[in-house]
Amino acid sequence: MLATPVDAVPEGTDLIHEPKWDGWRCIAFHEDDRVYLQSRAGRNLTTYFPDITRAVRTLPPGVVLDGELIVWERGRTNFALLQRRVTAGRGLLRMVNDHPAHYVLFDLLAAADGRPVLDLPLSDRRAQLERLLGGAPAQLTLTPQTTDMGQVSDWLTEWTVATGIEGVVTKRLGSRYQPGRRSGWWKFRRHLTTEAIVAGVTGSLHSLETLLLGRFDRWGRLRYTGRTHPLHTDQRQELGLLVSPLRPLQHRRATVVHPWPQPLPASWSGQLDRPEALRYVQVEPTTVVEIEADMAFEHQRWRHRVRYARARPDMSVYDVPLLLGEVEGYFDEP
Prior knowledge:
- By secondary structure, this protein is of the alpha+beta class.
- The chain has eight helices and 19 strands.
């Protein structure tokens, strides 16, 4: 079951709210002595999470669970450690030992006897899930729920910073579980408005498609930090007047080159489903733009694409927040 994106957290007496965890959505099937973990896209994740399969195996056969796979590091969720499970190879067991995963559960699709419970109200499914997890291994965690909007506010202000959650999921207490449907569930992602430097574009200088963004680190190096969603027509026209092609400069007989490789390495984007390198147009890193980004910021980059808000010709590139660290650089306001 899917959630509909919204611009504000819904309110109502028949609604319940949960944290939106920053991990991999996963359905777990326990059939006899076999456990199968399936991603939202239908991918088999079983091999990569032996610690979770062992934990699920302690539950009665027949259960089908819905939740989020996460890995904690120093009190925050770390999405990159989830991705490394897929590429760890022979180092997988060491990674499992050093960075164990947790399965944060929020729904029950089939009960202990294998009986489907999808048509039951969410409140009934939740009650069964709570009973099922009584005495379960610590790696199987029941997600918090609340009807208190004050608690929701705390999640969005305190938890997003402290633990790395992305936002809030709101559900109708009487909703049925409808696979593949967006009915009765909503998701709100917390966003931050901040600034970045344009150092590349896709498309062409005459027809911009997306912006490649960067920030200076404390040593004065311009680091790649992310990419925008596709630009609208009026945004392309506005930025087309501001960005300019890279001008090679002479410095001690050497040409000062753009600080990023061409094409942009696939590993920089962090997208496992699109592994190809990205060709782009390098531009003079002199244009500052205001963007809206969600909370998924790791290894000095925004994992998801950001939204372009407006150009900031009133700002120097040296007014843009520095990359002081994964958390500090992200929340440091100019």
